[in-house]
TrEMBL record, chains A, B:
Pathway, per record: Amino-acid biosynthesis; L-isoleucine biosynthesis; 2-oxobutanoate from pyruvate: step 1/3
UniProt name for this protein: Citramalate synthase
Keyword Glycoprotein assigned: no
GO MF, one example: (R)-citramalate synthase activity
Catalyzed reaction equations: pyruvate + acetyl-CoA + H2O = (3R)-citramalate + CoA + H(+)
Length: 528, 528
């Protein structure tokens, strides 16, 4: 099996993504997880560009990584000075990182128009910077920025820049599609030409760095490996500037499982889903359900035909066993679904529907009635579990509502003001609490939380992450039936609940109350 | 320029996506936008599978499309019966759709293991079903389900299934990577083999249908065109089961701009961004900022180096001019982008922004600020018009709010009870009314209607037809900012209004109050 090295740049290029920020401490946590999953290189930042990046390298020195090497990123020296006078190179050395990745300009347009530099001086900058850093005893990689655009514009100059890096002494050339505009066939053809050009210089490791502006970052990276690249740069979840970088959570299983490359062990591959969730959680970005391999929907089946086929042979509608990347098959219960979906789903949720076929049919019928009423359980597995428990008398209620009252007031142009009063019962105890909120549901959420937190302190680590309302039947104006979907999360779980009613507050209450009941039922399962 | 036909299946395969649902009326709205953008085929649903799909085809018959042809989707006849006894084929014919796309099994595993059918009978089903539908005078396309997996398992049988479809009389063979597990190099190689195999049968149109399970749906579709496919199936925003279908909003600009294929006019290409937004709004799915070409971040530049380079020459960090797809470059420097859109829009809505360039820039800036706050005016032209009128001092208020109070009460298992009191002023008259409703917004709607109807009887022919709520920033639970979109209609018009606030009632009030103001402003224009 041919070895492919994985180079993660979530902490550097990934952080260029809009709304993305990691503190140095966040970076340390992520770096440990990347190392634990068997990533070979972890690029921690550009130490010359900001103090936060430099701080991470200070912290990283104290970590005993299992195998990962930490890399610092920076530019070649500035034009017209010697390397030992360049602050950026000094910062790279001071970072103490065992690997230094420097980028240089491959595209004559950048050298001439943007840098106002000469083509010769640019080559000298590349050669001298690489040699200078190698002299410091570091492993040096060369990132050829805009290589593919540069090659398309002026192939011989683009090749000269690589030659300069090789002359400086590095053996790792990373070809970058910085603007993300290249197509797989172009990437393939250009890499082949480069390899042909340097075929007399043995031992070169070709790396690939792609962006997703044409929705092709993964395909371009995989195609590069297909023609001989042996190092892949990317980010977890494809985070990065504009449309993002190449998503390692997709590239890794493709290389390991489909192309049989030696890049990550089977055991580590199973950590991919959690790694993806951990990074999105640390970035405070909602996980993308449709994300290949690691998304919640990546192995979710909706159509009844698909589900019954899957039960006969999963290969029928699944390109890979989800377990390999730590994911699970999910069967969605929807309008179109049949009995087989519901029985399968009950098993998955750990609810025993019993063996009585008549009783089973009644349960299925009850769930289908609720679906006809507008409950969309494929988006609300938390509520589906509670309802299955209710239908099979396995439901335990952790609290009961006595009453609530919500008041919303508005005066002229002043914003609305909402407050809620709630009375609940837990066993023999009655709690009456009152709270304000940004809107009636928020006030109700706060009042319920206040009422329950004395008895169930574990609810404090749960919070609502998404709240969606939709009119089911658009024909009756504000009297129409609405569906409220709530997504909640605690430290370990994400769960969704649903409510349906003509009244938005009633529907919200159902979903809200289910989310608390579901959370409390989860806590109950873990040994205390 | 070689022609490539675009086949949209957002309304059928796209709706298989988790949490995705379109009513027949939603589908009509989307179909009109697809047609307006120059999509060649619009697949509306599987009429045999559910009543909602059939209803769309009823509605579609009444639409005069500019160029798009509507397609109905379904399976080949069942084993062991004749075509005229097959309910599914009958439903396809009854749909009245001018194009029928039927899918058949290419993979022997499906025929044998899942269908428990014979390989021979499967070929007959394909041949006879195609012939039967052609006899009805329809254009018939053949979707070869699981073609690439089937070819990998048993190439000669997979080719036999295509041969059966050709023998049935169709000339359009759509090769499907149903499970989304194929790599670009496999797709390329297999399509070349198929083309070689049928090289003596002239006039075959090859289509491609891909899924994104390996993050390669776009690359696979584009690669197929690269080797000679001339029809591409996909969905807007890549919606679809599991990881989604091939995203047409990426494929189209790649084909048109980068590969110079004749698939969409330059003018229509500029509608892509709005089409993407419209479909995500209708689906009530948050638009993905990092989506290639049409995402909010697709041409957003964060780094200062990038920004100054971009100002010297946009090509430096941009693979394409964003204007071509209706998008805009976003940089930290203040920008005039979108100004022309807004001026154009004002003209369309009949608001005179005046000739003063300074004033115009202020108006554009104010609207852009509101957009940054979460107002999405593309889906709320009613509110956009009112805001433009306010900014140009042309706004006439038909009523003013003094105050309102809404109370929601719930007792144990009884449903919620809502009532509202409202005090409004029209000129010198003050009205205080009170009303109940199914929920707080409904109560408020009823109370406002009651207060206004004495003075403005014309509001009685207006009613609310859709009400959508979405959390804009999913990270803050019930405290997060929500956007409420209301669609209203009277006898002649449909108009949409918007409100944004941390408080759902406040946001609802903004949208509700705008809908009444807008309605009254309309009435004012018509001679009475």
């Amino acid at each position: 099996m041919e070895k492919v090295q994985l180079y993660d740049t979530t902490l550097r290029d990934g952080m260029q993504g809009e709304n993305l920020f990691f503190s140095p401490e966040d970076k340390v946590k992520i770096a440990k997880r990347l190392d634990d999953a068997g990533i070979h290189y972890i690029e921690g930042g550009w130490p010359g560009s900001n103090p936060g990046a430099a701080h991470f390298f200070e912290l990283a020195k104290k970590i005993a990584f299992k195998q990962a090497k930490v890399a610092a990123f920076g530019a070649t020296r500035r034009p017209g000075i010697s390397c030992d006078k360049d602050g950026n190179l000094a910062a790279l050395i001071d970072s103490g990182a065992p690997v230094i990745t420097i980028f240089g300009k491959s595209w004559d347009l950048h050298v001439n128009e943007i840098m106002d530099n000469s083509l010769e001086e640019n080559l000298k900058m590349i050669r001298e910077s690489v040699a200078y850093l190698l002299d410091q005893g570091r492993e040096v990689m060369y990132d050829a920025e805009h290589f593919f655009d540069g090659y398309k514009a002026n192939p011989s100059y683009a090749l000269d820049t690589l030659e300069a890096a090789l002359d400086g002494g590095t053996r790792t050339l990373v070809l970058c599609d910085t603007n993300g505009g290249s197509l797989p066939c172009e990437i393939e053809e250009i890499i082949r030409s480069v390899m042909e050009h340097f075929k007399d210089r043995p031992g070169i490791c070709y790396g690939i760095h792609t962006h997703n502006d044409c929705a092709m970052a993964v395909a371009n990276a995989v195609n590069a490996v297909h023609v001989g690249a042996t190092l892949v740069q990317g980010t977890i979840n494809g985070y990065g500037e504009r449309c993002g970088n190449a998503d390692l959570t997709a590239i890794i299983p493709i290389l390991a499982v489909k192309m049989k490359k030696d890049c990550m062990s089977e055991d580590n591959l199973k950590k991919l889903l959690n790694l993806s969730r951990f990074v999105s959680e640390t970035a405070n970005m909602p996980p993308v359900n449709s994300r290949p391999f690691v998304g919640k929907s990546a192995f979710a089946h909706k159509g009844g035909v698909h589900v019954s086929a899957i039960m006969k042979n999963p290969k029928a509608y699944e390109h890979m066993d989800p377990v390999k990347v730590g994911n699970v098959r999910r069967v969605l219960v929807s309008e179109q679904s049949g009995k087989s979906n519901i029985i399968y789903k009950a098993e998955e949720l750990g609810v025993d529907l019993g063996d009585d076929a008549v009783k089973q049919r009644q349960i299925v019928a009850s769930i289908k009635d609720l679906e006809d009423d507008g409950f969309e359980f494929d988006a609300a597995e938390g509520s589906l579990k509670l309802i299955m428990e209710k239908l099979t008398e396995q439901y335990k209620s952790y609290f009961d509502l006595e009453s609530f009252r919500v008041v919303v007031e508005k005066d002229k142009e002043k914003p609305c003001y909402s407050h809620a009063m709630i009375k609940i019962r837990v066993g023999k105890t009655t709690e009456i609490t009152s709270a304000e909120g940004d809107g009636p549901v928020s006030a109700l959420d706060n009042a319920l939380r206040k009422a329950l937190s004395a008895m169930y302190p574990q609810i404090n680590d749960m919070h609502l992450v998404d709240f969606k309302v939709r009119v089911i039947d658009g024909s009756d104006g504000t009297d129409a039936k609405v569906r409220v979907l709530i997504e909640s999360r605690d430290t370990d779980n994400i769960f969704s609940t649903i409510g349906v009613s003509e009244d938005i507050i009633e529907a919200s209450w159902q979903a809200l109350s289910d989310s608390f009941q579901y959370k409390l039922s989860l806590e109950h399962q873990t040994p205390s």
